[in-house]
Amino acid sequence: MTSPPLTTTMPSSSGAVKSSRYNRRASMHRLLKLVARGAPAALCVLAFACSRPPRLGADLLVTRATIWTGEPVRPEATALAILGDRIVAVGGDDDIERWRGATTTVIDAEGRRVLPGFNDSHVHLVDGGTQLDNVDLKDADSPEEFARRIGARAKAKPGAWILGGEWDDQRWTPPQLPTRALIDDVTNRTPVFVSRYDGHMALANAAALGRAGITARTADPPGGVIVRDDNGNPTGVVKDAAMDFVTRVIPAATPEERLRAVKRAMEHAASLGVTSVQDMNPSYDDIAVYADLANRGELTLRIYAAPIETGFYDQAKIGIHRSFGSPWLRLGAVKGYADGSLGSTTAYFFDPYLDAPNTRGLLSEEMQPIEHMRTRLMAADRAGLQLCVHAIGDAGISQILDLFEDVVGANGDRDRRLRIEHAQHIAPKDFDRFASLKVIASVQPYHAIDDGRWAERRIGSDRLKTTYAFRTLLDKGVRLAFGTDWPVAPLNPLLSLYAAATRATLDGKNPNGWVPEQKIAIADAVTAYTRAAAFAEFQERDKGTIARGKLADLVILTDDILTIPAARIKDVRVLTTVVGGKVIYQRRP
Ligand SMILES: [Zn+2]
């Protein structure tokens, strides 16, 4: 073990003193970690090494709390002590009192519920942060309101691309896809490319179609659709792979814009008690921003970045394995796509859509042909990378399970923690395969109460029985990791916990639950958002529960979500968020 110097030979400027103190502190933390893990000898070393033995005070105590630890041996506690970035003790208030020192900060939780920090297993962090500044069409309830908001943006910043949006055509009466005709007059030469909230289709205005070179003569690309009117002219809506025609002509965000987006996203996450995220499909430029922030010690959110699966070789060739990195930033996963989404009728099903009988969805571009996908997944797995694949329709999910079977067959059994992202509509025959292949279902409960408004007319009551089938998955012994797909759904974990426990759709039409037999207990939902989410990123030793030696990531809530009626969970707020032992968010009760 190499120890940093405990005294400094530098001139006694304030900077030198500070760095010497920092080193002593760092060294103390290492020793105390040993103490915490039961190495009594470390204490003597500590006393010997310091000319004036410091008092063993914690940096932060949380007292008079109702702590859900997530640990089966001690599920509840009332106090905890934090030293540096780790939890050093969990217990009753009396047990923890001995950690109080002269400089210890104490948070009196006044009996409130404390949970491990939330770990969102599926976000798009930079998109989410960018979205916080973009035009917001999520609650634009009519075509007129949709056009008004876009027009106002174009007037304020003429010529600058209008992006984001997150529109929802199912809010309109009757539901109908928007067209560029709605917005061409109010935007003129300002290019517009606004996405549906699921990210699987977007509306381009005439200016954007022009820059993208999309005309009536442009053919649909594999895995994509250019929606056309009766005369064959593009209406402005493009689906899945066809979106690339436009996205490739949008100027890339500058590093400053990316940095701003990440900072906005981190602030938003802190206010919601989200202390870790698993970031799906970040660009390498996004990761560069995370890396800069990590190097400067400015991350307040732990990030596991899973870049696009087709680029797996970038990580494989330099020997990066799953969950490589620091507690703040990790790499080593890849995220692929099997199909599209239910809302865009591009999720890939065995049977046609009821309200679009000429289609059963689209396999993604990367799955065409499927042999290429199989070759890449096998090679990525052989390189030790973790495989996460987006699959929503029952046939899309089934095909990924087939590929996973091939991967295991070819590369042999090991702890690889394969993941299917979304896993929304599972064929009854496939539940057992999730279990036998130990595939993690990385699911987003908020989508259930959102899609639940209209999914039945799209896929019918039979397929609904195994839609967002959280109860069945748990009963089969499948691990559920919760997330939001932010900005597709709100980042607020309490909304997702509410969704899993109530399945009460957003339109208020199913107060007792939509497909109620798939509701799960709130404690199971919390586990899926903490301990199981940590497992899904190979981090269960370091986070996901409140226990001695774990990273000090936790939240204090206004109300006890484990005991209040589930219908009230959506109104609960985060009072305090602690990450790595630092209070990064606090609101007044
Ligand atoms: Zn996603």
Describe this structure in words.
With 589 residues, the protein is an alpha/beta fold. Helix content is 32%, strand content 19%. The chain has 20 helices and 26 strands. The chain has a six-stranded mixed β-sheet with strand order 3-2-7-24-25-26, with helices on one face. The protein has a six-stranded mixed β-sheet with strand order 9-10-11-12-14-13, with helices on both faces. Strands 8-15-16-18-17 form a five-stranded mixed β-sheet. Strand 13 (224-228) and strand 14 (234-240) form a beta hairpin. The longest helix is centred in the N-terminal third of the chain and has 23 residues, at 14-36. The model is unreliable at 1-28 and 30-54 (pLDDT under 50). The chain binds zinc ion. Residues 122, 124, 280, 485 line the site of zinc ion (ZN).
